[in-house]
Amino acid sequence: MVKRLELPVGFRWGVSTASYQVEGAVAEDGRGRSIWDEFVVRPGAVKDGHTGAVACDHYHRYREDVALMRELGLDGYRFSVAWPRVVPGGSGAVNSAGLDFYERLVDELLAAGITPLPTLFHWDLPQELEEGGGWLARDTAYRFAEYTEAVVGRLGDRVPAWITLNEPFVHMVYGYALGIHAPGRAMMLDALPAAHHQLLGHGLAAEVLRGHGRQVLIANNLTPVRPSSQDPADVAAAEAYDALHNRLFLDPLLLGRYPDLGAFGVETEGFVREGDLAVISGSGLDGLGVNYYNPTLISAPVDEGLPFTDVPIEGVERTAFGWPVVPDGLRELLVGLRERYGAALPPVTITENGCSVADEVGPDGAVDDRFRIDYLAGHVEAVARAVAEGVDVRGYYTWSLMDNFEWAEGYHQRFGLVHVDFETQRRTPKASYAWYRELISAHRAC
Ligand code: FCB
Prior knowledge:
The chain is an alpha/beta fold.
């Protein structure tokens, strides 16, 4: 039996995926190369040399996947559009065959009564743009707006709300600062322009979306940051980390200014031009997408490098990925956002939340992922507590519909409600799938 929670009327339930993680078909119908196609073939970049060349073959099996979603009773499906399918060279010619795929998908969703919630950029940048500097180049922001026009021009009539970017923080840090994701640059703090240009791209794309009368969201990876003690050095380190992870990507959007990054010894003056912040904040947000996985515990730095140390959270369960399980961190995060931004905080949708489990199909053909059910139930309850404390949360999208290509981890981390056998492409709904269906239906039947 699932627990019925006090959630606002019209609360929306969904699942999330992303293009490179599920689609496959990387060389079909005129799709161009993306930075991920290049990155996955670098020796040692991805565990066991896995690639997204086939992934879940969603490009061909989307009907079967939408049928699984319909059966769940979802309100919404968050997926991403692959920029290199639509504008294969990153700028210039639009590939109509690429848009046809998303049109088929959108129409299939609508026929199933599911609202499409597309993300325009979930990390698969066209390789040609990378060769011009990727998001380190200001020009990429303008190319992003042109690509947005191509997509929204075709699908905007059927899709009310759009997410511009997925997790600009993670893309900057993993892709440009540390090099563990594509494009694999390891520039540390010199990666900062990649944050600003993504945000500028968001602002320019938001203007395009507004021009079409569409709603604008962005999905940020956010984490409540806790100091490891009340020692002023730990507290200052936690503030520095919070500025980098959370405020760098929210203050410009919601307050029209960058936070003080003095603790990092960096200035934004070099690449932030006059008028940029007005573009970034100007269009406003109809909703903030929050991707939450875990809180972060921070201590004072141990050496001369970064102004903080990330320390393990003890005494809690961990997912197969090793991520700490702290459901109340989601309540803490949401309440903290409301306290920090007040009326400037738009309605929130949880656009990702979930966990990896070493799931296997049992001899009886079932996948008993009790760990995931407990994880999801705990987090949905945390959302309800945040709502009770006055935060305007409109929906919850779990990551993910199905097991998929988990970036540098390849197929080793399974996040799905549906198990995927990557040899046969067989889909097997897990116990959590049945649980989620029941949860959704319990919240409908009132
Ligand atoms: C998020 C990503 C998503 C997925 C989950 C596990 O950071 O947005 O694509 O990989 O983590």
